Amino acid sequence: MDGDRAISILADPDQWARCSHNATALLAEGGVGLVWDILDPAAAATPVRASGDGPAGLAFDRWGRAYRSRPTGGRVEVLDVATQPCGAAAQPGDPAARSRGAASHHPGALRTPRGLAIDGAQRLYIAESCGGAVHVVDLWAGRLLRRVPVRSAAHRARRPLDAAAVCGGAVVLLADPPGLVLLQGRRGPLKGPAVVRPPGAEGLLPLRVAASGSRVHLLWSAPGSPRAVLARADGSGVVAVAAASDLDLTADGTLVVACGPGRPFRRFGPDGASWTETEPLHAPGHDGGALAVAPDGRIAFTTADGLGWTAGSATRYTQQGSVVSYRLDSGSYRTRWGRLFVDACIPPGTDVRVSFLSSDEDEVPDPLPRTPAGRGQRAIRHPELTPPLPSLARLARLPDPAALFRRPTGREWPWAQIAPDDDYETYEAPVTAPPGRYLWIVLTLGGTARLTPRVRALRVEHPGHRLAAQLPGSWSRDEADADFLQRFLAPAEGILHELDGRAALRTLLLDPTATPQEALGWLAGLVGVVLDRRWTVEARRALVAQAYDLFRIRGTLSCLERILRIYLPVPVGIVENWRLRGLGGAVLGTAPGGPPAPAIGGAAVSAGALGHFTVGGQLPGKDGYSAAAHRFTVLIAAPLDGDRLDVVRSIVATHRPAHTLVDICPLGSGMRIGRSLHLDLTSVVGPGAAWGPAVLGHVLVGGDGVVGVPSAAARVGDTSIAGAVRVG
């Protein structure tokens, strides 16, 4: 068989930009597809009611609740998206909303609230535009923490227009003059990033702000003008979007822009210092107000009745397009090229076909002029180094394009597998062109108004197979016969070549991180492990990789904890019940104000009784050994649904010591003090406060002692015991 063959690749976005495009677009994730146009929103049958609030705010907390500002009503509404239908708003002042930790305000209590932001500590920042201040609300406690006046150096109140969450706080956009300040809980306002006017924003003012990590983005616009410019705070990354009204950023850095009532949302993916536009999204019923990215990645927006969500792509594709590659060089004249491999996503009703041109001529007398992509065009690095495009005369005599064959075995690389969440598959076609050093590839894309094929990468091998040289020379003396023989033997030779490649790299089958998913169960059997298919592929690979270490400590709590951490990438703790002996017992003493409780010496045992009080919290006559020995609790700091909880139970039942009893305690998003949180065992809570117990009747409430646990922002003496302070 032949040795390793060279591969020419066309996959980088810069490579696709150097090609000549006809009704095709560059994709933000890389590759090409058919060009698209934004659907005309005027064709909608139902008119959209615009909101009279103007620029407003929308933000989500960690529990999935949406907070919407009503500037003209002077309030902030709370929408519980998980339990209420879209448009059902919790009315301000609703006790049920307060019990859920919502920030409620009576109508008219705020002076034109506009921008909203919620930081990682679940603090809600409300930009009170006409009040010249920012309200900071603690959503855990459901109460106002502080009201921060925003002033200039001349002690003049400034108007906060919008807010965006950043690490541990929020950045607030101010007007009169334009600027940014930082608020961090109880700190601030601090000086924020400098605002630089971007090119093309003459006569515009910053009206909206969005943040992603440490980068702050501004929307520059003017009331009543369709002009709008989006840019970073330092003036870089400029993109002009007509009639833009609000913006936000997704987790992967995609910029989402609202463009007025009822119009689709436009999206721009980061491309270095610039942006590449991707397909817009339908926003049915958008009232021209705010948009926000929900914690689950969906894009929400305000409507006249409440809250709405984007609904698919708002594009119409052209139905035919083509891409002509630049010249690929094999390095040797009279090269007979091999097979072409195409990574593409071809939905039903669409098609991708391919044609080839080859040549041994070093010069191209009449090259095809390069036509940029219709969408997503990007700047080319060193355009003078781009190889020439094919001859116009030869391109006019291009043969009919050939169809692609989908490979049932996936990638052509040995043991390479396509990820389950990857929509792209590998297609194959033989290079049907005469021998030549240079090769051009022409892709013809066909689609529908709603669907387009996508091509991510091309790979072509050279030289092709040499099986014809093993046959009698008379069979390939004629050029037409040699071409037919080359194509006839290509499928069989491709299978043999790939089998040779797999045999040469068969050691990969013994590597848990590289072996194909289909062979993972076989590899686990070699080390005596039976895999559960309910586990993720990454967790199964990690379990096989650590199998020998886990067998060495099998039957111990350390082994069980490691296996649970492999399956659940969250903190897992195991507490043996015997370590909790003596916790939770009553304080030994006589009466309030009496002598102090005596020290427990060596005579006191955990299961014994002294008077009417028990030491260790056990009832008199209860056997401490039977309550604590050979029992332990698994604490999992994450919420568990039905399937994951079943898998955890299966793991615990299989790998626990056989003589033990186990309790599984999912902690959800927090810990319950007394049941799951034990100091020095499962958690350490800061330095000791050295507070003594308070006794009713001997400690003055509001003076030196506190009864119960006060809520955040509660002040002793100003809050009733029946309100924010709990007794006991």
Provide a descriptive summary of the structure in words:
With 728 residues, the protein is α+β, with helices and mostly antiparallel strands. The protein contains 10 helices and 44 strands. The strands form 12 sheets. Strands 1, 3, 4, 31, 34, 35 and 37 form a 7-stranded antiparallel beta sheet that branches. Strands 2, 29, 30, 32, 33 and 36 form a 6-stranded antiparallel beta sheet that branches. α8 runs antiparallel to α10 (642-655). Residues 42-46, 83-107, 583-618, 684-691 and 698-728 have low confidence and may be disordered.
| Radius of gyration (Å) | 34 Å
Specify the CATH architecture of the largest domain. 6 Propeller
Query: Class of the largest domain, according to the CATH hierarchy?
Result: Mainly Beta
**Average pLDDT for all residues:** 78
Largest sheet entry: 7 strands, antiparallel
Query: Stretches where pLDDT falls below 50 for ≥5 residues?
Result: 42-46, 83-107, 583-618, 684-691, 698-728
Shape, per Cα inertia axes: flat
Query: How helix-rich are the residues, as a percent range?
Result: 10-25%
- The number of domains is 4
Class by SSE composition: alpha+beta
Q: What is the fold-level CATH name, i.e. the topology of the largest domain?
A: Neuraminidase
CATH homologous superfamily of the largest domain?
Answer: TolB, C-terminal domain
| Cα end-to-end separation | 82 Å
**Beta-strand percentage range:** 25-35%
Count of individual beta strands: 44
- Count of helix runs: 10
